[in-house]
Amino acid sequence: MDIQDHNATARWEALGSRDARSRGTAMEHISQEVMRRVESIGPIPATVPSPLATAGHSTSDLNDILARLLMMSKRCPFDDVRERCVWLLQNVQDLGVRIPRTLGNGPSRFIPEKEILQVSKVDPRTQSIFEDAFAALGRLDNISLVMGFHPQYLESFLRTQHYLLQMDGPLSLHYRHYIGIMAAARHQCSYLVNLHVNDFLQVGGDSKWLNGLDGAPQKLQALGELNKILAHRPWLLTKAHIEHLLKAEEHSWSLAELIHAVVLLTHYHSLASFTFGCGITPEIHSNGGHTFRPPSLSQYCVCDIANGNGHGHLEERRGNHQVSEVSGEVEVLMERMKQLQECRDEEEASQEEMATRFEREKTESMLVATAEDEECVPSRDVSRHFEDPSYGYKDFSRRGEHVPTFRVQDYSWEDHGYSLVNRLYPDVGQLLDEKFQMAYNLTYNTMAMHKDVDTTMLRRAIWNYIHCMFGIRYDDYDYGEINQLLDRSFKVYIKTMVCSPEKTTKRMYESFWRQFQHSEKVHVNLLLMEARMQAELLYALRAITRYMT
Ligand SMILES: CC(C)C[C@H](N)C(=O)O
Predict the structure, then answer these.
(1) How many whole angstroms separate alpha carbon 216 and alpha carbon 199?
(2) Is the CB of 520 under 6 A from ligand 1?
(3) Measured distance CA(455)–CA(516) in Å, rounded
(4) pLDDT, tens digit, for every residue of 149-160?
(5) Region annotation Disordered: residue ranges (predicted)?
(6) SS3 338
């Protein structure tokens, strides 16, 4: 059974059906084919180092199937399918074939697996969100599992993503996934690149395009420039860039197509931020998610070690020591919030003073160092084909760069961006708006162990700080608050995660907000991701509006 084979694919997809009978039939077919395939290879003693290597070409298909079964046995939200997959893997193993096991410890390198929701133990609402996600894409990915800390948000996120990728829209399906690949590759996010390479091939995309942007149609090649600017310096976008895409004679984009592309690009840039910010691990069934080797070998991935992520235990121990040093951190922060609240009512700074505070914060944010100097291991996956040597990442260091100020009074999401998107790509403006609001307003009124706290001020500071890094200014916000509420290590994390997400390390994740819950750090990631997406969108939409008028 070839995994790309159409019938086979349909059968895997049927495992996501809500109807238990269809799932049962699909599972029956899969079981028979797996067993047939195993028998055709013949019983292989488990002592042979790579048991399937001797059996030639067909083994890689079998390996893929086994990896997929392993993924299903852990991640399928339907109990019956999970149980059958475990049973099937056991049977295959009994025949003397080595089955894969998962590498790593769950969906995130930063968050212990036991703290993340288990598909088998969720409340009914989350269960149904997981089932929908599974039915739509035939998987429940690690991103969704980690977002599962915030089911309300997850629902809105998945609804939007489903609409952008699978529902009626200006762009064809393979274009959508290809644009996702281009965007994720800008940040060397092999996790997202791998996911969408699979999807791209599944919807009939041409594998030649995967050799790099040169292999893709000119129309997509032309999007490369927009992709780069949006990802790294969106304030440089002008109407000339838009005109270039819309007026290219043969390979031109329609306005509606361009909006679709822009939304996809910004969605995947910011999702790459989330992926690195939460240390999302490779999916079980893709490269790096499982291994056929026995335990003890390949404990660490070389790249983890190089990134300072290989010393889990050591860091944990060190972490415990630090807890005593930082106790009180939350209380100090809460005290500051209280004071700011009180002062707010007293003094009003002048307009000039407010503008100066913004400029100061913006300039300072440029100077916050990311992990630029740390060695970064070049990734060896498909994303390297998309790199453009003329646009090295070093060039994108924002240190000391002048970013012009963008006044929300002149162009805002609510008054301008939203309606432009809705006009050209119906419903998407609405979906994005709901998602932004969801992220912006989400609160449980908690701060670490404290309950009944109004965290508005803190969440506002985070959102506005990200927009400030992009030069976006709200006239009525006092940027002096940011310095009171966000400390240095938090700013380093934010800057890295937003500007060069691939450089986020476990150490950075651990060194900010040490007393907060993991769910709160994921919450922070949602704010960062959505604020970044909105900032990029604002620049792109403003350029489009300027072109149109
Ligand atoms: C990001 C956190 C400060 C959010 C906080 N736990 C809340 O419920 O509002």
Answers:
(1) 16
(2) yes
(3) 13
(4) 999 999 999 999
(5) 1-26
(6) helix
User: For residue 86, how far is the Cα from the chain centroid?
Assistant: 29
What number of residues does the chain have? 549
Q: Whose CA is nearest to atom 2 of ligand 1?
A: 520
**C-beta 150 within 6 A of ligand 1:** no
CA distance 84 to 70: 11
User: Does the C-beta of 524 come closer than 6 Å to ligand 1?
Assistant: yes
pLDDT computed for residue 396 by the predictor: 52
Q: How remote is the CA of residue 365 from the centroid of ligand 1, in Å?
A: 23
Which pLDDT belongs to residue 314?
Answer: 42
Contact 529, 271 (CB under 8 A): yes
Are the C-beta atoms of 213 and 224 separated by less than 8 Å?
Answer: yes
Element (H, E) at 490: helix 488-499
Structure tokens that stand for 402 in this block? 């002048």
Report the sign of the C-alpha dihedral through residues 212, 215, 216, 219, in that order: positive
CB of 427 within 6 A of ligand 1: the answer is no
Contact indicator for 493, 512 with CB cutoff of 8 Å = yes
- The ipTM (two decimal places) reads 0.98
Of 100, 13, 3, the closest CA to residue 51 belongs to 100
Rounded Cα distance between 509 and 476, Å, is 31
Both tokens of 433, joined, read 């708006």
Asked if residue 122 lies in contact with residue 66, where contact means CB atoms within 8 angstroms, the answer is no
DSSP letter for each residue of 224-254:
HHHHHHHHH-GGG--HHHHHHHHS-TTTPPP
What does the alpha-carbon distance between residue 449 and residue 329 come to, in Å, rounded to a whole number? 12
Domain coordinates in residue numbering, the chain: 330-371+379-548
For residue 88, give every residue at least 6 positions away whose Cβ sits within 8 Å of its Cβ, in sequence order, or none.
30, 31, 34, 69
Rounded-to-integer distance, Cα 539 and Cα 236, Å? 9
End-to-end CA distance of the chain: 56
Distance of alpha carbon 113 from alpha carbon 74, whole angstroms: 12
Span from the CA of 499 to the centroid of ligand 1 (angstroms): 23
How far, in Å, is the centroid of ligand 1 from the Cα of 350? 31
- Angle subtended by helix axes 20-41 and 58-75, to nearest 10: 150
Model confidence over 83-127: pLDDT tens digits? 999 999 999 888 888 899 998 779 999 999 989 978 878 899 999
Expressed in angstroms and rounded, the spacing between residue 449 Cα and the centre of ligand 1 is 11
d(C-alpha 420, C-alpha 541), whole Å? 8
Residue corresponding to tokens 């609804």: 159
